[in-house]
Specification:
272 residues, alpha+beta, Immunoglobulin-like, C8orf32 fold, 2 domains, six-stranded antiparallel sheet, 16 strands, 15% helix
Length: 272
Amino acid sequence: MKLHVRHTTDYRYTEPLRYALQTLWLTPQSGPAQTVNYWSLGAPEKLFTQRDAFGNTTSSYTFVGSDANNVRWSLVNAAGEVETLGVPEFNDDETLPHPYFFLRATHLAEPHWELAEFGRRFIPQSLDGTASLPALLALSRGVADAVSYRKNSTSVTTTALEAFKAGAGVCQDQAHVMVAICRSLGYPARYVSGYFYAANEPDLASHAWCDVCLDVATRRWASIDVTHSCLIDQRHVRLAMGTDYNACPPIKGVRQGGGKESMTVQITIEPV
């Protein structure tokens, strides 16, 4: 499936912006599950591109204001065409961190005994560095039932344990809970950001899922969409991956000035 994606982030400020440094994780890469036919980024200043430790393409820019440059808004655009192939299993390149790196605790997806206890209903403690894909899919269904999808019920700072205890969250929270449970049981897991195409689910255009390692020795992974309790397919466009949301948000930065900030995000995905 060929999908055209347009992602616009509009920042507005009540006072002049004096300084801003922003990093964007908004560039998908070609891989086993997709081919990027073309992609472009637009920002208020010149972008500088590099790869991060997880192999993601990141782009950064710096804005410096002045009395003559009384800026109260900032616009970031990302757009392009991606051909999705729907391949959910793949092997990591040797240049990426070892799978066991993704057992480490992170603030948003920290292992916990309550999560481990829940996870054992579906999958046993890892013993040999391999995982059963049917059991992982059963776990994803269990997580989706335990943490119901509820729009605007959490924030980007909500942890996996908080969402699990609340019994509700968005796709980001469901992915974090799945990752934290897997880590609690010894299965390397990581967070994935991306897009999801569904004509009747526009709220999921900005989406999140997870990778779980099936075989540590061969660096083999499976991408699982917890929200839909399925392996990723041609509806998914992969943007970036990391230990949790904090490692690969769409945009992250710091600023001086600007007063109060408001942000509007608009994402459209259309089949070509």
